Amino acid sequence: MTPSDLLAILSDVERGTMSPADAAARLATLPFEDLGHARVDHHRSLRTGLPEVIYAAGKTTEQTAAIFSSMVADGVDVLATRVDAPTAEVLMRAHPEAVHNSMGRTVSFRQTAVSGNGGGHIAVVCAGTSDLPVAEEAAVTAETFGARVTRLYDVGVAGLHRLLAVRSDLLTANAVIVCAGMEGALPSVVGGLVGVPVIAVPTSVGYGASFGGATALLGMLNSCSPNVTVVNIDNGFGAAYTAVLIARAAQSQKD
Amino acid sequence: MTPSDLLAILSDVERGTMSPADAAARLATLPFEDLGHARVDHHRSLRTGLPEVIYAAGKTTEQTAAIFSSMVADGVDVLATRVDAPTAEVLMRAHPEAVHNSMGRTVSFRQTAVSGNGGGHIAVVCAGTSDLPVAEEAAVTAETFGARVTRLYDVGVAGLHRLLAVRSDLLTANAVIVCAGMEGALPSVVGGLVGVPVIAVPTSVGYGASFGGATALLGMLNSCSPNVTVVNIDNGFGAAYTAVLIARAAQSQKD
Amino acid sequence: MTPSDLLAILSDVERGTMSPADAAARLATLPFEDLGHARVDHHRSLRTGLPEVIYAAGKTTEQTAAIFSSMVADGVDVLATRVDAPTAEVLMRAHPEAVHNSMGRTVSFRQTAVSGNGGGHIAVVCAGTSDLPVAEEAAVTAETFGARVTRLYDVGVAGLHRLLAVRSDLLTANAVIVCAGMEGALPSVVGGLVGVPVIAVPTSVGYGASFGGATALLGMLNSCSPNVTVVNIDNGFGAAYTAVLIARAAQSQKD
Amino acid sequence: MTPSDLLAILSDVERGTMSPADAAARLATLPFEDLGHARVDHHRSLRTGLPEVIYAAGKTTEQTAAIFSSMVADGVDVLATRVDAPTAEVLMRAHPEAVHNSMGRTVSFRQTAVSGNGGGHIAVVCAGTSDLPVAEEAAVTAETFGARVTRLYDVGVAGLHRLLAVRSDLLTANAVIVCAGMEGALPSVVGGLVGVPVIAVPTSVGYGASFGGATALLGMLNSCSPNVTVVNIDNGFGAAYTAVLIARAAQSQKD
Amino acid sequence: MTPSDLLAILSDVERGTMSPADAAARLATLPFEDLGHARVDHHRSLRTGLPEVIYAAGKTTEQTAAIFSSMVADGVDVLATRVDAPTAEVLMRAHPEAVHNSMGRTVSFRQTAVSGNGGGHIAVVCAGTSDLPVAEEAAVTAETFGARVTRLYDVGVAGLHRLLAVRSDLLTANAVIVCAGMEGALPSVVGGLVGVPVIAVPTSVGYGASFGGATALLGMLNSCSPNVTVVNIDNGFGAAYTAVLIARAAQSQKD
Amino acid sequence: MTPSDLLAILSDVERGTMSPADAAARLATLPFEDLGHARVDHHRSLRTGLPEVIYAAGKTTEQTAAIFSSMVADGVDVLATRVDAPTAEVLMRAHPEAVHNSMGRTVSFRQTAVSGNGGGHIAVVCAGTSDLPVAEEAAVTAETFGARVTRLYDVGVAGLHRLLAVRSDLLTANAVIVCAGMEGALPSVVGGLVGVPVIAVPTSVGYGASFGGATALLGMLNSCSPNVTVVNIDNGFGAAYTAVLIARAAQSQKD
Amino acid sequence: MTPSDLLAILSDVERGTMSPADAAARLATLPFEDLGHARVDHHRSLRTGLPEVIYAAGKTTEQTAAIFSSMVADGVDVLATRVDAPTAEVLMRAHPEAVHNSMGRTVSFRQTAVSGNGGGHIAVVCAGTSDLPVAEEAAVTAETFGARVTRLYDVGVAGLHRLLAVRSDLLTANAVIVCAGMEGALPSVVGGLVGVPVIAVPTSVGYGASFGGATALLGMLNSCSPNVTVVNIDNGFGAAYTAVLIARAAQSQKD
Amino acid sequence: MTPSDLLAILSDVERGTMSPADAAARLATLPFEDLGHARVDHHRSLRTGLPEVIYAAGKTTEQTAAIFSSMVADGVDVLATRVDAPTAEVLMRAHPEAVHNSMGRTVSFRQTAVSGNGGGHIAVVCAGTSDLPVAEEAAVTAETFGARVTRLYDVGVAGLHRLLAVRSDLLTANAVIVCAGMEGALPSVVGGLVGVPVIAVPTSVGYGASFGGATALLGMLNSCSPNVTVVNIDNGFGAAYTAVLIARAAQSQKD
To answer: Which residues of B215-240 are buried (b: 16+ CB within 10 A; e: fewer)?
Structure first.
């Protein structure tokens, strides 16, 4: 049922060609969810202004390319994540003005103007080069969603001085994303240094008893810093999504 | 929004005191879910006619007794599961005509007439005396919901002759519930003997590598009999609920 | 021992050439299981009328093709599941009138007439495109077994409006199959909307802490909807098999 | 080393009684962390203004009481979590003006003035009565930290209408905490309804394959709603801590 | 169907009051398994001559005592395992001539004569005092079943000299039972020293990462000695049952 | 130290050229283990007469071929397990009289005469074609070690009649090896039918919640038949090794 | 065989009353392990000089007291670990000069003189009060074994300043023991600060996804600091044992 | 801030161009961690003299080669671990005087003189050829770090004589590294034979229930020998790193 369908019913009632009781019966069984669908989506996109996102893993190159082009044609900002190299090549050939981050496996296309610093400031922290794909997925997502991102890489807990050296950067962020594999200790340490929410992303980096990231995940869930929350293994996108929601609100606070 | 609220709006439209556009705006934002709520519940209870059920575990004796008495006062059939001994005593003192199954930890109170054999025929199978609490929870639930139940206990796979001896009972059931702990092999064997759905209930019976029923659960999920589906460990109630839905339909077929 | 062997013994008794005691001794040790085998199989196939099924995974192309052709020659309906592309090509070349569903990895060959709507109505629900192979395996299996199937895809719990929009389709099904990966929440939500058994199929879709479908599996086993039972990860065939048994009975009820 | 120690060294250099090289040597080995310690703590408490918190589990009643009274004497707001009944009785006897929430196992003592609505609005959602201890721990923590809390209990996914009925409350919150056991599906559904961060708290409610909350935890980590982050099982305090940080920023935005 | 039922049918055929075809039809559907039951049980008991066994865990004292006394009255050898102290006291009071092994939690009653050394020789090995309950359950079971048992306790792998000192005892056994907790390394070492089957019993002894015996179980399953097979955690009875079967055959060889 | 070294020392003592004290000192520190090594190995091979075995997995083709040829040159029986196709081809080219079992991945070379039926009779049972590689590894190992093997394949628990039909073969075996994947229920059923030890081999056959054979392994460890012991997943060789030890003893008993 | 037995044989050879061949035969089969036993034990105790240790868990009070008193009578140093309160009371009553550490659950009795600082310097680090029982078990063990112990408690990773403040103590230790529960991150951070071996002890402190210390254990095994090795959950004794071996050697280096 | 920066500030104070208060303010906020960093690193390298290490797994050949060459140019000793064959070829071509251990997957380049036997003596023990890659990684690491290494391979627990034959080598080592897969029993046995720390390295060798080394890991953590500590699966490098620290101290003791 479209809004015009609803208006048609109500006009029938107004004209007297449909009784209120009949109209009530029809409205009680109408597929109101379609109305709800449109409204909810509209409200959400109005409120968050977040771009459309395509999760390319498990889609063929053709499917991803078709969806990407269709969204670009709609004039909205577009972000594709988990894009493998061949698919990225196809997307970039079709949309040369898009941006491909091969480390983060993203292709993004910003079509709307970025307005000031409304997106806030997010720090993305990780310990080693192996965590970079996840960290970059988070960083690019946050940037595409309008946040300013400070990358603080190679600051593992076994060399505290490197982490302490970047503390001032950490202290100005509205939200901090920490990607770590192996023992996953970094979010606890970072959480103790800052006063904002820390989104911890376990990475599948490691071997043996790292169990594909499960150890890092468990460690982060047991963090002794109370400002740490956790997302799924390697889920840089999800961490950035929540961080963006937080950073916007926090940044607006200071405007 | 109640139906009368809806009618009031529509009457306003009919009378011309509210424009169709204004009414559309109000209806687009009404809490239609309340309407949906009433209808769904009504439809379900009309269709299934199943009694109200109280899961007593995690409730205080006072809470369980209050809910039980309130439902009895409504005139509906009532079933309380996972009722410990002290709570059962309280319920039975308040409602002497209720039925307490101490093995199955249930207290049931049937207030409506049971109509013929409409509930179908369910066989409840288990291997050993330790599985009896789960098997009885399933059996009493099925009976309270109107099914005829045949109990086939002590028929483990290590003594096939006992199982084969009751095959004729199995073959007349509309659905079979199989409760088993340890290796959980019984549902596969039963599934190979019958042509109806088998609902497998792993029980927490066993020690060591039975891991509280997890081994039986995993075994049942890997059953080589395609007519086996599985519920949670010790979930006799859930198995009976689905078996009742199946047996009703199947029994009606033969009426 | 064939039935004629049995008759021969009994005729000997009738003729007086074998005493009842000798016959009893022979019958007590006869390989009665062969009798039982034939009878059980016969009974089952008579009662269910289900096609022969070949599980192609773990078989060579040659093995699968030989079995398939042999069954086709018997004139029965045949369904092969988990058929990889090269094997499907071989099967289709040999039996051009067969049907290949590449998404569901099935090749089916219906040789008997489908009689009316006796197979009932099954809804197959899934959340995302990655669940499609499992959902299609279930759908094709159900169709090959004679059920009418409504496919309700792309209705995940994070966008309730899409699910609510198809509620009417759900409400007319005799059984519902729900395939879901990741958190496996969809069966609980669907279970709350319908009054028929819901067969939940966890899929191996996801990454990280989805642990190859184990998370979805565990979630479904803990469903708060009592009409949900569960099968193995990715077991679309098994879900359809049980759903068909349920839907037939339920449909017959209405005939 | 205190600031005056540092000044003393520098004065020695200024006076020429210590060479720059000697001072450099001393400063290179000074316990600068003590300086850092004081500063960091100071900064954090200035920035967040959060009360002191005592985790009473694993502490004796005497230890908890001593720490609590000491903090009260400092004039700051105090919150004790995981307080068992005997300890709560001791605390309440010593501080009759404190507030004991027996369901949430907290004792809180607010000594500073609450300033307007600066703490923002947090919705705490849960599915069943068994989740209440965790939900109340979260709610009381958030309230003690200055947030306005809306409790939305008994809104499980198997009865969507109840959840949809409270959607307007959800839509006005700055952050949503969702506590759920069993399959842990509620955060995904809530996440799809709102545009703010959702903090998911798995609870140890359930039996069998709920594995003490692990199933709910895994389900939440695999949520298909990108605005969901997760904390440890039963960690209502941690969820509230992060929610408070988010809600403050968001609320300030609107001031 | 009893044997006399079968004879009745056959007599009817002999008398001509039942046609062979009718008899064939009846026999094809008779519960022949009852016949099979009797025969199989008879064969097994004739072949093995093993005593009746009562697994007392999960039975009430009254149930265990009733079964025990009933078996004693039948004149057969009786063994009750997992007997707690109160139950043992009841059994011993009723049957003063029975033997109670409090360490192994068994009560045994041998009523038949032990014939020579036909039961063979079994060595029961364990590492520490904590493994004694399981080792004694195995030893008493083997003795009650007629085997000669050599107990070799306190011979852990961290002190090889103790194990090597008893090698001659090991070398004369027909089968060796090795009970070990913690890392479960003992069966591999023993397996390398002997040329007979080693039955490994993981015990639930240990703490932390022993996970209730799971670590010992896994270690034993990965034994590098090919003559090691494994039973469930703490299953001294099962190990002895198989060891007895082996030792009898081996011992007979030498007679 | 060789025996001649020992004799040399003792001769020195006899001749008086070495004092008993000096000899004691030397003997107390001699590498007696080398003596022990030789003796133990000698004793074992004399007692068991088992062929030499090469575990080819993890060895290069060259390594396996070199060891194989060296053993063949020694004139002993040789068995290589887990031999991949290329390695098998090399072995067979070098030793055309060897036997390659491609299903069981073995190459065996029997050089000694097989003496009568001294090896006993072993039944190898499995449920499906996917279990064949493991079953054949067991069967070939047992045959190479001198046992007579009866293969009973395709007798799964979902079709009991097939298993019951081969019961007579099972009843004459001295030991039974049962290979099963998925739910691993077959050993329990077989264990209930026979009176000899059953060696259960879980196979990695299955998908989803079979977890690479772990489910079958756990099921077998929880078998309700007390004559079942278990080896590692896919360890057909180990099962045969123990079965051979049992069958020899049992067979000798009947000679 | 005792040394005197060996000498007797050799004397017989010297006297000519036993031929070298006979002596060789006897020596080849003598229980030489007993010799080895004595020698090994002697060597070890001479080299390490470590006290005798009684693991009291799983022993009765009577058993522990008897062993303790027997060792005290031998004049050696004695340490009993995992001593519960009632047992400690009995031990202290019998040996008032012993030392009871109720937090660490130890009773120790030093009877030999402590010689200088030969035992080296060990730092025992932990994060919270809940880790104290394990940390104290380690500290008391190390002290009883002759090491100087510096206790550095309450220095968790969420408050780095506290850890950095004690760095100088860490830098002078010969070995560091780090006890931590929850996420187990502390050893990695400490490992990065020091240049000596760090023995990590996971503690069972925590709740929910700490899984009884498994999460801390896994985290420590994945430490990014290469000087970290790990012992079992709560195994303070084992950590101290190895730390003592390290510290002695290291300390001696500086003497 | 470099030391010269610090001196510049202090010189300004000395010259009177900066007040002590201003200098204090600058020093209180200076990135002192950089100072700390330099000092800690300096101290550690001075104390340990350990080479630089490159973990090549997860780095491209180009990255590894660039880092390697840069370190070589610095004149320090360099060790690259987990080097695959193509990368090793590139490194060796660029630095022909480097040493490639293909079994241990290392490339090492020693540029500094090795001074006497200061590195101590380390024994590296393993059971089978499959453990060799891990054992060699440990051995080469230890050698590159200056230790003398004795390799004791092929000494599994199923053939104790082989292990006992090398006991004298074990007894002279300052630290022992034991690599073992499957059941991981070897460290316990070795630990019982020696009086020095044993570093246990579980290897991912095995199949089925070895679960990629997890079983060996768990076994080692539960070792009954108190001188055993454990590192991650396949972490030969980490074991050698700690063993080197131990062996140096121990060896110096004897100088």
So the answer is: bbbbbbbbbbbbbbbbbbbbbbbbbb
Give residue B15's pLDDT. 82
Alpha-carbon span E255 to D101, nearest angstrom: 78
- Range of lowest pLDDT (D60-74, F2-16, F222-236, H167-181): F2-16
Q: To 10 degrees, what angle do helices G20-29 and F3-15 make?
A: 130
Nearest Cα residue in chain B from C219: B232
| All chains having 3 or more CB pairs closer than 8 angstroms to chain C | A, B, D, E, F
Distance from CA of C58 to the nearest CA of F (A): 6
pLDDT of residue A5: 58
Element (DSSP H or E) covering residue F41? helix F32-48
Query: Which string of DSSP letters, residue by residue, matches F175-237?
Result: EEEEEE-TT--HHHHHHHH-SS-EEEEE-----GGGGGGHHHHHHHHT-SSTTEEE--TT-HH
| Token code pair at residue F46 | 């004399």
Distance CA H231, CA H247 (A): 17
Do A and G share at least 3 CB pairs under 8 Å? yes
The reply to whether residue G13 touches residue F28, judged by beta carbons under 8 angstroms, is no
Residues G186, G203 contacting (CB under 8 angstroms): no
The CA-atom distances, in angstroms, between F215 and each of B57, B146, B182, C229, G104 are 30, 36, 12, 19, 41
| CA–CA dist E108, E9 (Å, integer) | 45
- Alpha carbon distance F122, F198 (integer Å): 10
Q: Is B191 within 8 Å of chain F by CB?
A: yes
Beta bridge partners of D202: D180
Nearest CA in chain G to H197: G242
Tokens of G192: 């990065």
Tokens of A58: 């498990």
Task: Calculate Rg over the CA atoms of chain G.
Answer: 23
Which is more confidently placed, A89 or B159?
A89
E179: nearest Cα among E222, E120, E230? E230
The C-alpha atoms of residue B128 and residue B152 are separated, in whole angstroms, by 10
Query: What share of chain C in percent tops pLDDT 70?
Result: 83
Phi, psi of C181 (to 5 degrees): -110, -155
F15 touches chain G (CB under 8 A): no
Structure token digits, residue F176: 């039974």
Which pLDDT tens digit goes with each residue over B10-37?
788 888 888 877 776 566 443 333 322 2
**Burial classification of residue C46, based on how many CB atoms lie within 10 Å of its CB (0-12 exposed, 13-18 middle, 19 or more buried):** exposed
Closest in E10, E21, E29 to C7, CB measured: E21
Residue count of chain F: 255
Question: Which of A237, A252, A241 lies closest to A115 in space, CA to CA?
Answer: A252
User: In chain B, how long is the greatest CA-to-CA distance?
Assistant: 80
Mean pLDDT of the A29-43 span: 31
Closest chain F residue by Cα to residue B195: F158
Q: What is the pLDDT of residues A10-21, one digit of tens each?
A: 788 888 888 877
For residue A219, list chain G residues with Cβ-Cβ distance below 8 A: 183-185, 215, 218-219
As a whole number of Å, the end-to-end CA separation of chain F is: 41
* Cβ atoms of B239 and B177 closer than 8 Å: yes
H vs C contact (3+ beta-carbon pairs below 8 A): no
Q: Show the DSSP H helices in D16-97 as ranges.
A: 20-29, 32-48, 61-73, 85-94
Q: Looking at the complex, does the CB of residue B27 fall below 8 Å from at least one CB of chain A?
A: yes
Q: Which residues of H touch G47 (CB under 8 A)?
A: 195
Of B37, B58, B234, the CB nearest to D208: B234
**What mean pLDDT comes out for the span D122-142?**
92
